[in-house]
Design brief:
alpha+beta; 5-stranded antiparallel β-sheet; Alpha-Beta Plaits; 10 strands; 4 domains; globular
């Protein structure tokens, strides 16, 4: 029985604190990971000082600064960074958008065809470009396909997320989880206590066979039972004001001849103040003006389109000498300023600097030259007093802006634009080159010519040299929050091993599962990892669970790699909560889902794939299957 040492107690407390912070997210998960890393590095020196002062008997063993910083030099971290760059190179050619347009052409208004085409395309694609990037690219097209085909977007967006996770299990580069699991396995393989195990760095296609089975079973579920369980939360519509239910909050008012506003600038008369009013546009004769409206001087007869509630409107009419225009304000009314799009739906992207900020704190109106009409988070729609609401990944904003601003938002990293704009700067002439580079990366790593980290870096360099990406674009391509998360959680796995906490936890699992055969213990690890991943980061789950899984495999006399696969596959398929996986958060707002929708659709899928994956691993590693 492993001893409960001070190191075990301290690292356990750190893990519990990290789990709470990961689950509740009072700060972003990457900041939590960095906090964990720094805390682990402080334990030994601080406890040493306390021991010198006589407070502690001996210093607490934890990790060295070199081990604490090892996450930044980890092959997993660098590989994931390079994969972001490779995915961006492919995205900039427009090839995935072309696939999305193809979906629209071949599916028409058949929901069955739409669903089949979407899951049939996104799953294989996600095996070779980052699955998070694949969903971000395809989300606008899927929404357009749904609305054009008179299908609720909710019926397609959750399957889009789930299908991308299936694809992530196909290859080593399908998801950052796989890369991290391979790196942890390679590091453990060098430790003397694991010398007799079959641990090793994973090959590019080492688990592809199992991934294909998981993908096919998952796709069959989504096309049958999953289709029946997936709700139609948002009706198909071409009018965004109707979709967000903002019609009652939009109105037009005309400035009377005797109004005290005449002659004053808009910013002095209407923009500043405590009233919950947003100016959307100014109609003056045949001209329609959008932001910036502040510098314009108000004239008699001017008509303003406002977003406000009825009580505030009545107060405004009483004070300011305005007349209500009794006409409905819909999307067509808000799109009359310019030839392009003025009213769009955008989703807060992962890694966006706006996460945790409010519209006020980032000066949204001034920064983007745009106005937010409504905010949707799952089923909740906020149509008033939105300015102080902290933004989260997956929040959907209904935005009115000049066409130029819409195009700038589409090109930026803060948001994912739902719906296509007419102008794109895709480098379609580079499509063949970009695909060839990715194929080369996969081939070099798959054939063992180069390690995956070297192959991926070579491919990233090739993307720039060939002009698929500009040098400055590689920095924008990387999701730095994911990189910091990886660098921060890797030392936690080292601390679990070094203090003996992993061995102690493994003994507890074996003891509690003593009546189960090896395949039963394998299923327990899949389930534990899946449940953990549904509330915290998938990468954190891998780091926490793999050392325990390997220790358990040794205790029950099974393949360590088999247990590694169980943890890896479970961490790559978190279906039951919107926070379990980034792609689930992407579709949470655009799909208008409830939290319980993920349990209803994802729960049975999680159990189904637990059985399929466990049996598949047992067959691969000759683990006896009771009959």
């Amino acid at each position: 029985m492993a001893a409960i040492t001070p190191g075990v107690v301290v690292v356990t407390l750190i893990v519990l604190a990290a789990l709470v912070l990961f689950a509740t997210e009072p700060v972003p998960v990457d900041i939590t990971a960095l906090g964990v890393m720094v805390t682990l590095m402080l334990v030994e020196p601080v406890s040493g000082l306390l021991a010198d002062a006589g407070v502690l008997a001996v210093p607490v063993t934890m990790i060295t600064p070199e081990q604490g910083l090892s996450g930044f030099a980890s092959a997993a971290t660098i590989t994931v960074l390079a994969m972001f760059i490779l995915s961006e190179g492919v995205r900039m050619t427009g090839i995935v958008q072309t696939l999305g347009e193809y979906i629209g052409r071949i599916t028409g208004d058949s929901e069955t065809k739409q669903l089949g085409a979407i899951v049939g395309i996104v799953s294989p694609v996600s095996g070779f470009i980052n699955n998070t990037a694949a969903v971000a690219i395809l989300l606008p097209m899927v929404t357009d396909v749904a609305n054009r085909g008179n299908t609720s977007p909710s019926k397609l967006l959750l399957p889009l997320s789930y299908a991308s996770m299936f694809g992530g299990t196909l290859t080593l580069i399908g998801t950052s989880t796989n890369v991290l699991a391979s790196d942890v396995a390679a590091r453990l393989a060098t430790a003397p206590e694991y010398a007799d195990t079959d641990l090793h760095a994973l090959g590019m296609f080492e688990f592809t066979g199992l991934g294909v089975v998981v993908m096919l079973v998952g796709m069959a579920y989504l096309l049958t039972v999953g289709r029946w369980l997936t709700p139609a939360r948002i009706p198909p519509t071409d009018d965004l004001t109707e979709e967000f239910g903002v019609g009652d909050y939009l109105t037009e008012v005309t400035v009377r001849e005797d109004s005290p506003l005449v002659g004053r600038k808009v910013r002095d008369a209407l923009v500043e103040g405590d009233l919950d009013v947003d100016l959307l546009q100014l109609i003056r004769g045949d001209d329609v003006f959008l932001e910036p409206l502040g510098p314009k001087q108000i004239r008699a007869g001017d008509t303003f389109t406002l977003r406000t509630d009825r009580d505030t409107l009545l107060s405004l009419l009483d004070v300011e000498g305005l007349d209500l225009v009794d006409v409905p304000v819909d999307e067509a009314e808000l799109e009359q300023a310019e030839a392009g799009q003025n009213l769009v739906e955008v989703v807060v992207a992962p890694g966006s600097p706006l996460v945790g900020e409010s519209l006020t704190s980032v000066s949204f109106r001034q920064r983007f030259n745009a106005t937010v009409l409504a905010l949707r988070r799952g089923r909740e729609v906020v149509r008033r007093r939105m300015d102080e609401v902290p933004l989260k990944v997956g929040d959907t904003l209904l935005v009115q802006a000049p066409t130029e601003t819409v195009e700038r938002i589409d090109a930026g990293r803060e948001f994912i634009l739902i719906g296509e704009v007419d102008h794109h700067d895709y480098r379609q002439e580079k499509t063949g080159i970009a695909i060839g580079i990715v194929a080369g990366v996969v081939a070099l790593a798959g054939l063992g010519v180069l390690p995956i980290v070297v192959s991926a870096l070579l491919g990233s360099l090739a993307m720039v040299v060939t002009g698929c990406l500009d040098p400055g674009e590689i920095y924008e391509a990387v999701q730095w929050d994911v990189i910091l998360l990886l660098a921060g959680v890797i030392p936690l796995g080292i601390a679990l091993e070094r203090t003996g906490a992993a061995s102690l936890l493994a003994e507890g699992v074996v003891a509690s599962s003593s009546m189960l055969p090896a395949i039963g213990v394998l299923a327990v690890f899949y389930l534990l990892t899946a449940l953990l991943t549904n509330v915290i980061s998938n990468n954190a789950s891998v780091v926490l669970m793999i050392p325990v899984a390997v220790e358990t495999a040794q205790a029950v006399g099974a393949s360590a790699t088999a247990f590694l696969f169980a943890v890896m596959f479970a961490a790559s398929t978190a279906f039951m909560t919107p926070v379990g996986y980034q792609t689930n958060l992407f579709v949470y707002g655009p799909g208008g889902y409830r939290f319980t929708d993920y349990v209803r659709v994802g729960g049975p899928l999680q159990l189904l794939l637990m059985g399929v994956t466990t049996v598949g691993i047992a067959v691969m590693f000759d683990i006896p299957i009771p009959v």
